[in-house]
Amino acid sequence: MGGEMSLAFSGQKDKVLYSDFTATLYASNVKDLISWVPVTPVFWSPMNVKEVNLYGAEFSSLTYYNMPQLELKLSASYNFVGEQLVYIPAHTCNIALTGIYKWLKVGTTMLWNSRCYTDNNYSDPLYGYFITDMLCGVSFNKKPCRIDVDLTINNILNARYESVKKYPMPLRSFMLNLVLTPKFN
User: Fold this and answer.
1) CA distances from 125 to 95, 114, 130, 166 (A)
2) pTM listed for this prediction
3) What are phi and psi for residue 166, nearest 5 degrees?
4) 70-103 tens-digit pLDDT
């Protein structure tokens, strides 16, 4: 048994500026929580863990700014989980900012996860972490197709973190992305 309540606002000004905001509160009683838990370091199994009262809040916002040659997009979200489950952080925050000017695109995303636990006794934590990614790209509109080339630097601050116990995530990495979109007209 449970429920959810949401509140949303949105607004637009002259098709140049658009914003929206959503807030959600939720609560639920789960009698037979099935959760994937590690049985060995490499093997996970579904288990009927316990009865839980889940509750929390989610907030998100999005803002666009559009001009003839400039487009900006800012998004942010925050999630709070009242009773932590295995590998679920109590707090998560995500912010993304992207700008496009003519053919050039730049952006950044930032993610913060709070501490989470690897067992149901809350005795074995994985520590929280903060990650920042950067993106730079170009777009070309040629007659047969549109060409997008993006370079992304993931974890630019070289944060050391684990999403699963004893499996460290990569440090700084680079990704080059090429997208060809054909035009059939």
Assistant:
1) 25, 10, 16, 12
2) 0.81
3) 70, 15
4) 999 999 999 999 877 888 899 999 999 999 999 9
Tens digit of pLDDT for each residue in 104-152?
A: 999 999 999 999 988 777 888 899 999 999 999 999 888 889 999 999 9
CB 101 within 8 A of CB 69: yes
Cβ contact 18:63 at 8 Å: yes
Q: 145 - beta bridge partners?
A: 182
Q: What is the DSSP string of 21-49?
A: EEEEEEEEEESS-EEEEESSSS-EEEEE-
Q: Nearest Cα to 56, choosing from 109, 114, 9, 125?
A: 114
Are the C-beta atoms of 48 and 31 separated by less than 8 Å?
no
Structure tokens at 53: 């009262």
* Domain covering 2-182 in this structure, CATH number: 2.40.170.20
